[in-house]
Structures are given as structure tokens and as C-alpha cells.
Amino acid sequence: MRAHPLRLQPGQDLRDALEETTRQLGSQAAFVVQGIGSLGVAQLRFAGIAQPTELRADLEILTLAGSIAPDGAHLHISVSDAAGRLYGGHVARGCIVRTTAEILLALLPDHAFSRETDPQTGFMELRIRARDA
């Protein structure tokens, strides 16, 4: 495992930036270990709902975790607003960094991830393989 700390800048799309960073690093398997920072816009897909919900406010990122494969990321986030209300769900495209996002990626050079339809769940799920040397 190789650790890769990362800081995202204001205006960056959280999901796009994480996927692009792992591509640029040549990683075929990565995990977001943790992330903190802030968002001005959050696009969260709540459990059991197909479309994301947009939140526009000054939001603090309390937790961020997930996996990143070359064909996409599966990320979960919890954010709080100025009143302390907590929201959490899947990270969709359109989560825009407000001031900063400080993230620790764990790159797994001996593995390759992909997303494939799981007949049991009907969803695109993580497939883990040993990476060819």
C-alpha cells in the first residue's frame, strides 16, 4: 500500500478530482481512507433513492471514505450544515469544494479493481483482482 495525501482546491468537483488523481497516478485500485474539508454544493444520493439530492450551503465534510476503480468510484460522505444538521450518503458528481478538501488515498499497486453487475444485488459492485506483475 502506498499512501497519497491530497488537497483539493475551491471549485473542484470532489468525485471527478479523486477519479482523475488515481488515473494520473496510474492506480488501478485505491481507497479513500478519510477526508475532511468543506463543500459549497453537495450532490448526495440517499439510501434507496435513485437520484441525488442537491444541498447548497456552507457544509463541513466530517467523513469521506470509499473505493476508486478505473471505471468509477464508490464514495460515502457525511456533511453538516451551519445548524449542525447531519447529512450522509453516496457522493455523486457535483460535490463542489468550498475552501479545501484534505484527503488520504491508499493506493494498492498489487490489486486491480473494477465494477461489475452483481446478479445478487443488481448493482455495479466492486470486483477485486490481483494485478498482473
Automatic annotation (TrEMBL):
Q: Does the keyword Glycoprotein apply?
A: no
Q: Does the keyword Transport apply?
A: no
Q: What top-level branch of life does the organism fall under?
A: Bacteria
Which keywords does this Swiss-Prot/TrEMBL entry list? DNA-binding
GO molecular function terms listed in the Swiss-Prot or TrEMBL record: DNA binding
Q: Which residues form the PPC domain?
A: 1-129
SUPFAM superfamilies per UniProt: AF0104/ALDC/Ptd012-like
Protein name in UniProt:
DNA-binding protein
What is the organism lineage in this UniProt record?
Bacteria, Pseudomonadati, Pseudomonadota, Betaproteobacteria, Burkholderiales
